[in-house]
Amino acid sequence: MAASERIKSIIAEQLGVKIEEVTESAKFIDDLGADSLDTVELVMALEEEFGIEVPDEDAEKMATVGDAIKYIEEKTSASS
C-alpha cells in the first residue's frame, strides 16, 4: 500500500470518517470534523506508523490531508 493510502486509512480510522471523505483537499477541522485533541492523536498515530517525529510547529501547519501526506512523504524519503 502506498504511503498516501496508508495515511488516508489512518486518518479515516482516527477520525471515524469514511475513507471516501479523506481527500487530499479535505481539511481536518472544517471537512472531517476533527477537534484539537483529534489532531494530536492523529499526529501521534502517524508518527508511530511511519517511525517519524513531528514537531508541534510542523503539526500545526498541517491543515489538510494533502499537507500531511506531503510532510510524511518528505520526512520518510529524507530518512531512508
UniProtKB/TrEMBL annotation:
MF annotations from Gene Ontology: acyl binding; acyl carrier activity; phosphopantetheine binding
Location(s) in or outside the cell: Cytoplasm
Stretches assigned to the Carrier domain: 1-76
Pathway involvement of the protein, from the record: Lipid metabolism; fatty acid biosynthesis
One Gene Ontology term, aspect cellular component: cytosol
Modified residues (O-(pantetheine 4'-phosphoryl)serine): S36
Keyword Cytoplasm listed: yes
InterPro entries given in the database record: ACP, ACP-like_sf, PKS_PP-bd, PP-bd_ACP, Ppantetheine_attach_site
GO biological process: lipid A biosynthetic process
Keywords: Cytoplasm, Fatty acid biosynthesis, Fatty acid metabolism, Lipid biosynthesis, Lipid metabolism, Phosphopantetheine, Phosphoprotein
PTMs per UniProt: 4'-phosphopantetheine is transferred from CoA to a specific serine of apo-ACP by acpS. 4'-phosphopantetheine is transferred from CoA to a specific serine of apo-ACP by AcpS. This modification is essential for activity because fatty acids are bound in thioester linkage to the sulfhydryl of the prosthetic group.
Chief localisation class: cytoplasm
Top-level division of the source organism's lineage: Bacteria
Pfam family, one: PP-binding
SUPFAM superfamilies linked to this entry: ACP-like
Family statement drawn from the similarity comment of this UniProt entry: Belongs to the acyl carrier protein (ACP) family.
PANTHER family for the chain: ACYL CARRIER PROTEIN, CARRIER DOMAIN-CONTAINING PROTEIN
Task performed by this protein: Carrier of the growing fatty acid chain in fatty acid biosynthesis.
Protein name: Acyl carrier protein
UniProt organism field: Candidatus Aquitaenariimonas noxiae
